[in-house]
Amino acid sequence: MQTDFLVIGSGIAGLTYALKVAQYLPDKKVTIITKAAADETNTKYAQGGIAVVNDLGNDSFEKHIEDTLISGDGLCNRKIVELVIKEGPERVKEIIEWGARFDKDADGDFKLGMEGGHSEFRILHHKDVTGMEIERALLDTIEKSPNINMIKHCFVVDIITQHHLGYLVTKATTDVNCFGVYVLNAKINRIEKIIAGTTLLATGGNGQVYRTTTNPSIATGDGVAMVYRAKGRIENMEFIQFHPTALYEAGKRGQGFLITEAIRGDGGILRNIHGEAFMERYDVRKDLAPRDIVARAIDNEMKISGTEHVYLDCRHLNIEKFKEHFPNIYEKCLSVGIDVEKNMIPVAPAAHYSCGGIKTNEWGRTSILNLYACGECASTGLHGANRLASNSLLEALVFAHRCYVASVAPFDNDDAGLQHPDGLLFGFKSNDINTPPPGNMNGVSAIPDWNAEGTSEPKEMILITQSLKELQQVMSDYVGIVRNNVRLQRALKRLDILFEETEDLYQTTTVSPQLLELRNMITVGYLIIKAASFRKESRGLHFNTDYPYKLSLIENIVL
After folding, report:
1. How far apart are CA 401 and CA 422, in angstroms?
2. Catalytic residue (one of 211, 264, 271, 291)
3. Is 291 among the catalytic positions?
């Protein structure tokens, strides 16, 4: 298959980019690949909302910028923070025009929520299923776009570069070029190639590397792993955000149910097993401190008491308002025997968000030519060492737009700048964006088909499933909220063994989605451990008891 623009991932970042490109270049073919159903994305499970400055009377860009910088603990790129927050309102306005609905009060004004680390009420939300509402609106609009082709249940195996043409590609190679991807077509169980002029990775997060996560099963770090194998640049993988409050269900592995931070914004109180409100002992902001601080506080309280959870107390809140704002959380709690009006909610931290990822510039360009990345798989410089709550959907919208601007620039013939139906876009000229022309698709025949010669069907799936359990156990026990050098060394040794065993399977058996995901997760786990080992300090989401203090000399860890 050949396509002009290839989008890998169908969350808020990938869909926004695809829509904008398709609308601006109606004669070009845009192809979206997703490995599951179209709406099975991290976006779908985003509860809290989208942080954006709406009410300039009380709020301001400066306040939102400062909140983001404080949360990022000295590692945010200030230029990126400023452009995301200042461009954010226009991007949110666009998704509202596409049909996304946010909660309003009786006067028709948006209801604004508060979350940890924010100094003002600025979170737009749709009850407690904001991400699901955004995903719905985007997919509805995608269906009306005739030049967008959506391919479901198709797993991307690897990025195609000069390496596949027989050339030596290393980290020192400056002109690595993406020509498309190899994909496993699940319907016919065959690996095929898709050649593309421009490719966007919007593959989401990697929470499944850990035993318990708020992420869906598809969040296996595929984009990060593929770029690393293709010799692209990855950075800041040590900063894995654990959401402080996932619903605790004894013995449960995999995806946990998220209890949104907005509940604490509405007055919910964290209490330990003895019923004590403990956050005042850790931070003056109490329950609304940034997530890294709250997660470590809960982790410490659990270790002191020897329990596997703490409690979120909502019994004092107005129950009718709770049901209106958090209907799904209310129903989920009831389904497991918890009446939030009478019972406290047992909660524990769970892997939630990767602040690092594929290194990009301010236009979403990666270190590989004609390859862009945005959304959670990308490291743009916005989040630094710790993401501010509800900044992720905002970042996805802003950088999807910027990737779009940069990737259509070669098609713009107006020296005055990129012209769009709504007028001059930012006033940037094509050459200001420094974007290479789309990849040459004329030499399609030179790119070899996938070679599965010498492989056979795997005889035992247990070889994959058991390795996955071992990986998740190692990462959770040794590379979790609190780390030290001995744990990191042990984790690296365990992953070396898992890597060798999995690579042997990969080389000798026909591939399956399960094997490909395991291979990607082992790579991501390795990157998290290596980055954590290089950072000889404690900063943001990375806390090493051997280096408990923050240093000013260590910047981004690039692998």
Report:
1. 14
2. 291
3. yes
